[in-house]
Amino acid sequence: MVRQSPPIDLSIPYDAAWVKGKTILITGGASGFGAGFVRKWAANGATVIFGDINVEKGDKLARDVQKETGNNNVHFVYCDVTDWQSQVNLFKAAVKLSPHGGIDTVVANAGIAGNDPIQQPGNMDVAEPAKPDFKVADVNFNGVMYTTHLAFFYLPRNPGSKDCSTNSDPATTPRDRHLLFLGSLASLAPFPIQPQYGAAKHAVLGLFRSLRSSSFVQGVRVNLLCPYFIDTPIVTTAARVVLAGSALGKVEDVVDAGTRFTADSRILGRSLVIGPKVNVKQLENGEWVLVAKDSPEGQERAVWEAYAEDWEDSDAFCRALVGILNAAQKARGWTGWAKDMVGAVAYGLGFNRG
């Protein structure tokens, strides 16, 4: 069973001021979405500790945001997300710098893109290929795994926090236990030109979907952002050439969606896709279609909820298969359970191993 809140009604406003007093840790915070989060949340009174490998940008951003917002609780800490100890140091620093000695939200934001060697044949005159560079996968997934492991260590230890709940009152409960993932539209759809990036972002989606059904044990809520191509430095010149003629999404829309998740402690296990602003209307069958910008029937939106249908029904194939397996288990009854238990004990004692 997935323990989650209902689909998000994006027409209902939230209050960004709900982040006031929270301590938020962000990986990859020196530029792109991360920098947008730092500015938005610091401006609304949060303590923000962000890590990045770019020391020059990180230091400058922290100083600029402190000056712009008057919030001195904005701190940069060097962090290479592919290095376990580096991430440990970031989390320890966040706890030390936190006014209340804990972390309310962890944002697994760090990510990179780049040339993908998977399908590149390389030098055809050598007997075997050189070892490929899989740094994209290392940053985008292994780094996220480190962040997740540390989040589940520190979030439940947040002083004054309680188990996540859809009945939480975000206006009066500043303490939280929240892990926010940065996936991508490449988490949901094929990304042919960068299969390594697509595979890593698919893995982040799998991690999110697995955790949201069990993280309630530690009282931690998990949510996911899946941006389309957004106007940030990660979209290279070559990619912009390929995308010419189509619209890019805006950083502020990603920041807005992330702020909704971070501010509203009632939202558990939801995912939002962010793309360019378009004017659309919804048909009776639920399908969205593009309409003219001046159409009275249309509404402008850039944010959509992924997997909203799984509130009532999970993926059709998975649900059907699990239903069959559950029915088979029921049919075997206690006799089948006893037989399997005997087999499990025998296996543990080494009797049935090859």
TrEMBL record:
Keyword Oxidoreductase appears in the UniProt entry: yes
Keyword Glycosyltransferase: no
Record SUPFAM superfamilies: NAD(P)-binding Rossmann-fold domains
Keyword annotations from UniProtKB, A to Z: NADP, Oxidoreductase
A GO molecular function held by the record: oxidoreductase activity
Pfam families, per the entry: adh_short (PF00106)
InterPro entries recorded: NAD(P)-bd_dom_sf, Sc_DH/Rdtase_CS, SDR_fam
PROSITE patterns recorded: ADH_SHORT
Family indicated by similarity: Belongs to the short-chain dehydrogenases/reductases (SDR) family.
Protein name: NAD(P)-binding protein
Organism: Lepidopterella palustris CBS 459.81
